[in-house]
Amino acid sequence: MNETASRATHDLDAVVAQALAWRAAGRKVALATVARTWGSSPRPAGSKLAVSDAGELVGSVSGGCIEGAVAQEALEVMASGVSRVVDFGVSDETAWEVGLACGGRVEVFVEAVGEPVDEARRGVSPAVLAELLDARRTGRPVVLVTPLDGGAHRLVALSTAEPPVQQAPVQPVQNDEIAAAVAAVGRRDQAEVIEVGGRACLFEPQLPARRLIIVGAVHVAQPLAEMAGLAGFAVTIVDPRRAFATAARFPGQALVVRWPDAALAELAPDARTAVVTLTHDPKLDDPALVAALATPAFYVGCLGSQKTHAARRTRLGAGGIAEPALARLRGPVGLRIGARTPAEIAVSILAEIVAALRGAAGAA
Questions:
Q1: DSSP code of residue 118
Q2: What's the rounded Cα separation, in Å, for the pair 363 and 257?
Q3: Which of 59, 11, 62 is closest to 39 using CA atoms?
Q4: Which residue, among 120, 119, 123, 121, has the nearest Cα to 110 in the 3D structure?
Q5: By three-state DSSP, how is residue 206 classified?
Q6: Residues contacting residue 205 through CB under 8 Å, at least 6 positions apart
Q7: In whole angstroms, what is the distance from residue 81 CA to residue 150 CA?
Q8: CA distances in angstroms from 341 to 195, 219, 221, listed in the order given
Q9: Where are the domains of the chain?
């Protein structure tokens, strides 16, 4: 994963790891999590801030405008052991100072880190946080369920059919409402507060990074890889031609110098993966497309003209690819925006990938 795509993952991992480290050292610790936002907000739901009993801070729940107030709430929670939901309003004047166009509201859930003392003083168990951290590091898709009334946390495996992901043996789901909410936030890939059994619960999906596999270390691949990294994708570039797939041409990017079919077999695209072929060479593109169409990749596209794409479909069909699979193939790749330069073509490709990911009209 390149540096840009990994930054958000690293931030959350660092917060949880530091909270566990403080707790293991015998320190009191509180964890603050953005539960809901209204209006302009610098940090989305699920953003976390760890606070030690010495007032040390790791992470962020805002652009800096409420961190001090949240830290004070955290110290009070450490003293009482009773979690709380705190509502902060950010004025337009304050919002401008931290880089927002206008103000809004942020709801933050603050809880102690530690084993429960009783029903009133429960907090989040270090064992739950350790399992969450392990799931994130190993790529197991899970959802952290936190009752905002201070009830017990649950770490639930995400094993829905849409999108298909590997099952993570954390906790089975026996409550239909919880199972439906877990599946919903998994599809949307965003933290949300959902009422379950009359209780407001924060559902935080922790999913493997979205991936983009680019076949062909050509000129268009350079801006596409950079832009995709900025959009949060973990990018891998595949090309057996060592003269093309070099660190000098693709600094900081993951390079696989292998034939595309072998590379895709190893990379195993899943439902959070997009695959794009850019070489114009059937010897490279066709095996990659055959391999990609046999996976649940949410997007499979190929660069080339209408004539080239028609010939490609004919070849693949003659090679045994069924029509339903061919119907998934997008080509010529990219939204029709009149792109001409490599960077403009990269913009059109990434835009179509995002539209497909989000189910937007432009994906059709």
A1: S
A2: 30
A3: 62
A4: 123
A5: strand
A6: 141, 142, 143, 158, 185, 186, 188, 189, 190, 191
A7: 10
A8: 49, 10, 12
A9: 3-206, 211-363
**What number of residues does the chain have?**
364
For the domain covering 211-363, report its CATH number: 3.40.50.720
Residue type, 364: A
Q: Is 119 helix (H, G, I), strand (E, B) or coil?
A: coil
Positions of the chain with pLDDT under 70: 1-10, 40-41, 63, 90-103, 117, 119-120, 159-174, 360-364
Tokens 């660092």 belong to residue: 14
pTM: 0.70
Contact present, 94 and 65 (Cβ < 8 Å): yes
Q: Report d(CA 264, CA 282) in Å as an integer.
A: 16
Q: What is the pLDDT of residues 222-250, one digit of tens each?
A: 999 999 999 989 999 999 999 999 999 99
**CB distance 126 to 115 below 8 Å:** yes
**Tokens standing for 251?**
């600094």
Gap between the Cα atoms of 281 and 283, Å rounded = 5
Contact predicate 203/182, CB 8 Å: yes
Alpha-carbon distances of 198 from 28, 95, 149, 172, 194, rounded to whole Å: 31, 34, 11, 21, 10
Per residue in 286-301, pLDDT (tens digit) is 999 999 999 999 999 9
Strand locations in the chain (E): 29-39, 48-52, 57-59, 84-90, 104-112, 142-147, 154-157, 192-196, 199-206, 211-215, 234-238, 254-256, 273-277, 299-302, 329-330
Q: Positive or negative CA dihedral for 287, 290, 294, 298? A: positive
